[in-house]
């Protein structure tokens, strides 16, 4: 596959990923990852200091399924709408079947009786596995700017 | 006059409905004067506040900027290795000296007029002290020694640093009482502590609601469906409850490993047989202390929670932001000699708490709803009768009680209004 086709596929992956979360089709979200994967959201202040604590951390697709199960079945939370604006999707480097990619993201949240608010902005540092038929995330690391979150961060980014 | 005594629905008279603490008037969460009084008496009064982990400022000159109440404080490591806590406000005209969260510097210089302090807060220089060419300058008797930064009292408990604006506060051991101090030192036990990261969130409710939430085991068995569904919490779990008998405002709930069974946390007797975790590493805790305590939830009056949840160790520090909002600052930590597998366990289990925590999301959301409901009904009253009406410590291990919340308010009332009753 030439570079141009791969760039188009990566860009398509990011678009479908954002649509999945914003459309509320959470059950499909883990399918964007391969079985063995790393998923992490962390504030910039920790990232800059080499600290690994953040709102979400998973090391397997199973753990992502658990997160969806928790959101669907157990977590008490008010209904909300989310819109992800993803830009600057870019292949940074490739090694074998793995691509290092980056993107910029803004997430807007709307609660019942509330105006739309910016939930977070940040950068993603991802690794995409191209070995299968479909592109899958081997790693997705979301680094968000303001460590100060307004309330809870319920849905993945 | 008459109106002031009786009050109205939205401007209630500031009275307590009953002598015991089984009733809490909602104006304690909404009234501005009450809030200013809390800042003066509780946050700037003779009580200890957590200001950080000492290994975050290992070298002379290192500092961190932290918050107590609404004030920022600089915690600095001096040339002699001692830790100081200094009010982040220039003695000259009150300006905040420092805006950085962490840093290192030989001296503290105000960006406005360059008044310069040493790491202990002593004023060591002011520009144009003698003026220019004999003109201007400070009066002859201007004494640098009299214009240092306000220093707080500091105590370092094996790496956990506490500070107080009021130097009359007793030592941490005396302050917490023997049993609560024992549990604090169970975690801060002399092994060098290292920070794994911070999380911060703002919650639209009064700061006290957070402390109450932690003093309330009643809600855990009802609200936290994640724990119940996956069989991670049972209200009949073997536990220990500790109450500081003098103040009744420092509490510990501890869960004891169920011996004879595989493991307390691995015991997945789910109320929802259809729900099962795919990645069990989330709850797979390893024993790491000499005792059998698997969960320790401790509140330190007024604004700190220390929690051991399996292998996840955290401090949750409450920063008030007016009557109807607070910040929750989470400090996750481990020990300096942890191996990578231990650190990974701490990181995995941290998924239960924080802004996206499988358990904590419920609290964050519900405390927001509390804030919404209370703000518009300041004349109403909260009822706290589970487990009786008194503030006596609950029987050991009894989790079906609101006793610790009643204890908190009994003490709160004494601190806030004891000289008026």
Please explain how this structure is put together:
The complex is a heterodimer of chains A (157) and B (421). Chain A is of the alpha+beta class. Chain A has 3 helices and 7 strands, in the order αβαβαβββββ. Chain A has one domain: Roll (Nuclear Transport Factor 2, Chain: A), CATH 3.10.450. Chain A has a 6-stranded mixed beta sheet with strand order 2-1-6-5-4-3. Chain B folds into 2 domains: 49-154, Rieske Iron-sulfur Protein (3-layer Sandwich); 180-417, Naphthalene 1,2-dioxygenase Alpha Subunit, Chain A, domain 1 (Alpha-Beta Complex). Helices cover 23% and strands 25% of the residues of chain B. Chain B has 11 helices and 19 strands. In chain B, the strands form 5 sheets. Chain B has a 7-stranded antiparallel beta sheet with strand order 12-18-17-16-15-14-13, with helices on both faces. At the A-B interface, strand 1, strand 2, helix 3 and strand 7 of A face strand 12, helix 8, helix 9 and helix 10 of B.
Count of individual helical segments of chain A? 3
CATH architecture of the largest domain in chain B: Alpha-Beta Complex
Taken together, the total number of domains of chain A comes to: 1
Strand residue percentage of chain B: 15-25%
Name of the top-level CATH class of the largest domain in chain B: Alpha Beta
The main sheet of chain A comes to: 6 strands, mixed
Separation of termini of chain A? 29 Å
Instruction: State the low-pLDDT regions of chain A, or none.
Output: none
């Amino acid at each position: 596959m030439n570079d141009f086709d791969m760039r188009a596929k990566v860009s398509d992956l990011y678009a479908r990923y954002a649509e999945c979360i914003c459309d509320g089709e959470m059950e499909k979200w883990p399918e964007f990852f391969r079985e063995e994967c790393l998923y992490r959201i962390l504030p910039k202040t920790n990232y800059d200091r080499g600290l690994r604590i953040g709102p979400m951390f998973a090391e397997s697709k199973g753990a992502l399924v658990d997160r969806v199960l928790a959101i669907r079945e157990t977590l008490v939370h008010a209904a909300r709408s989310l819109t992800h604006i993803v830009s600057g999707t870019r292949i940074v480097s490739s090694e074998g079947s793995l691509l290092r990619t980056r993107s910029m993201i803004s997430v807007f949240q709307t609660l019942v009786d509330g105006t739309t608010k910016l939930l977070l902005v940040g950068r993603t540092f991802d690794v995409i596995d191209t070995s299968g038929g479909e592109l899958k995330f081997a790693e997705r690391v979301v680094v968000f700017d303001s460590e100060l979150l307004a309330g809870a961060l319920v849905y993945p980014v | 006059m008459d109106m002031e005594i009786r009050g109205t629905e939205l401007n209630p008279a500031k009275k307590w409905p009953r002598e015991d603490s089984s009733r809490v008037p909602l104006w304690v969460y909404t009234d501005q004067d009450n809030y200013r009084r809390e800042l003066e008496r509780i946050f700037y009064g003779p009580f200890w506040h957590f200001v950080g982990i000492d290994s975050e400022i290992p070298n002379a000159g290192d500092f961190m900027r932290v918050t107590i109440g609404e004030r920022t404080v600089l915690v600095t490591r001096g040339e002699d290795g001692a830790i100081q806590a200094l009010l982040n406000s220039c003695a000259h005209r009150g300006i905040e000296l420092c805006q950085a969260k962490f840093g290192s510097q030989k001296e503290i210089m105000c960006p406005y007029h360059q008044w310069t302090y040493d790491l202990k807060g002593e004023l060591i220089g002011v520009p144009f002290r003698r003026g220019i060419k004999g003109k201007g300058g400070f009066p002859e008797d201007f004494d640098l020694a009299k214009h240092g930064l306000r220093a707080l009292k500091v105590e370092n408990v094996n790496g956990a640093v506490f500070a107080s604006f009021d130097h009359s506060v007793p030592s941490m051991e005396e302050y917490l009482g023997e049993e609560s101090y024992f549990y604090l030192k169970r975690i801060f036990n002399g092994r060098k502590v290292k920070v794994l990261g911070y999380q911060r969130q703002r919650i639209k409710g009064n700061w006290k609601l957070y402390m109450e939430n932690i003093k309330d085991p009643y809600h855990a068995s009802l609200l936290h469906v994640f724990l119940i569904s996956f069989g991670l919490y049972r209200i009949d779990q073997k536990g220990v409850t500790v109450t500081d008998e003098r103040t009744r405002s420092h509490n510990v709930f501890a869960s004891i490993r169920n011996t004879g069974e595989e493991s307390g946390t691995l015991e997945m007797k789910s109320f929802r047989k259809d729900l099962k975790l795919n990645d069990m590493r989330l709850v797979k805790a390893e024993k790491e202390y000499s005792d059998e305590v698997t969960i320790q939830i401790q509140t330190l009056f007024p604004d700190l929670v220390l929690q051991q949840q399996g292998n996840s160790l955290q401090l949750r520090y409450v920063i008030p932001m007016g009557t109807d909002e607070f910040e929750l600052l989470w400090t996750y930590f481990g020990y300096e000699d942890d191996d990578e597998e231990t650190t990974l366990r701490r990181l995995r289990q941290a998924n239960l708490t924080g802004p996206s925590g499988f358990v904590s999301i419920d609290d964050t959301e519900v405390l927001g709803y509390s804030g919404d409901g209370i703000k518009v009904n300041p004349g109403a009253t909260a009822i706290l009768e589970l487990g009786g009406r008194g503030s006596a410590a609950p029987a050991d291990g009894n989790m079906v009680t609101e006793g610790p919340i009643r204890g908190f308010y009994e003490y709160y009332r004494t601190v806030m209004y004891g000289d008026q009753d």
